[in-house]
Amino acid sequence: MADQSIEAAIRKILQEELSGNASSSAATTSEVQPEGLGNGIFTDVNEAIAAAKQAQEILADKPMDFRNKAIQAIKDGFGPYIEYMAKETRDETGMGTVEAKIAKLKNALYNTPGTELLQPDVETGDGGMVMYEYTPFGVIGAVGPSTNPCETVINNSIMMIAGGNTIFFGAHPGAKNITRWAVEKLNEFVYDATGLRNVLVSLDTPSIESVQQMMQHPDIAMLAVTGGPAVVHQALISGKKAVGAGAGNPPAMVDATADIDLAAHNIITSAQFDNEILCTSEKEIIVEAPVKDELLTKIQQNGAFLVKDQKDIDHLAEMTIGANGAPDRKYVGKDATFILEEAGISYTGHPTVITMDVDKDNPLVKTEMLMPILPLVCEPDFDAVLATGLEVEGGNHHTASIHSNNIQHINKAAHRMNTSIFVANGPTFAATGVGDNGYYSGAAALTIATPTGEGTTTAKTFTRRRRFNCPQGFSLRSWEV
């Protein structure tokens, strides 16, 4: 009877192991993994990265279904908290609008492609078989902005976990509380579904120094940085493979053939979205002279307030642009009405965007204004519109748009601008996945790697493309080789 009992126990253990969902197995995994302060939060960079590395080594050996379970747990878990995250982000950062943040969170959560992009590529022929598969880098060091804290945590995690990686996330100090909440919740959701801890780690007290230490750590295999020019520069000189989301100053070009009603609606709808803190938002309008007056009228009808007095325009520039040439943080992401009131400019109604008719050299045109200030520049013909668009975009190769019914103008502008994102006859936020654009054409894009050339990132961005050769086969079309 004793032998029978032992045999039965062994059979039970084997059955649980083969089923892949043994609760005892999950418990054992969690017991040997470091916990730090709990749910992915640590006090020390080295401890955090060591925990993420251990988790990645476990994740790398698991089947693809394990990654899918983790990703589905993230989507199911965060779903009920979308409004909470939007409100908390707005309260902590003081930037943007709750409504826009809800839209961005839904986009990150439900439109970020996962493992479905990682299907292998296979070639067969007389020389045998060649197969390419997409495999993990390891622990990825990610840095997030204060403008999209929870969205970046969610978007990065889905893409990077889909690729088999784990993540060290450097939170922006300006959004440290809501970022920590998101990190803790994500780990909670993934652990409950899979038994794996520390797929995403972060520090209880984020700092510039800790991000710099992380970037130099030998166990960080790759960097993905969304933020200002300084932090992107640090990533690019780290000696590691880096995906960098850099600056942008997207022009919205409008030629004489455009549907002005549609152009005005799209431009203002997109520019007012989250008070223009998206790097993809239209930052200036370049319009062809024959339709300038009509466009000015239409954008005002769509919510823009036209500042006419040159002294007010000059004061706005002096007030909102700091001595260092960057937008003043006091006004970044703030409502148009707040900026107008601070400038002492009287207005009527409830404007959502501030505009003014200026020349191309005005600092409000040349500066990436991360606030709802949208200057308008008039040029005599389309060639001048395109030339000015190229000049004010500043060679960032980030985002540009055109409103036109001339296919040659659209084609020429898309070619010459050479931006990671180019939108024709639509709001630029459409290219980030926000709105009803359909799957893939509307896939969420929060890390837009312009300096390093990857463009809108996906799970495939965070994998190594590895080649496997089998010279003696495998082809179903022939046998003799």
From TrEMBL:
- One matching Pfam family is Aldedh
* Molecular function GO terms recorded: acetaldehyde dehydrogenase (acetylating) activity
Instruction: List the InterPro entries.
Output: Acetald_propionald_DH-rel, Ald_DH/histidinol_DH, Ald_DH_C, Ald_DH_N, Aldehyde_DH_dom
Keywords on this record?
A: NAD, Oxidoreductase
Domain Aldehyde dehydrogenase span(s) in chain numbering? 43-429
Superkingdom of this entry's organism? Bacteria
Q: What SUPFAM superfamilies does the database record attribute to this sequence?
A: ALDH-like (SSF53720)
Q: Which Gene3D superfamilies match?
A: Aldehyde Dehydrogenase, Chain A, domain 1, Aldehyde Dehydrogenase, Chain A, domain 2
Official protein name in the record:
Pdup protein
Source organism (scientific name) = Secundilactobacillus similis DSM 23365 = JCM 2765
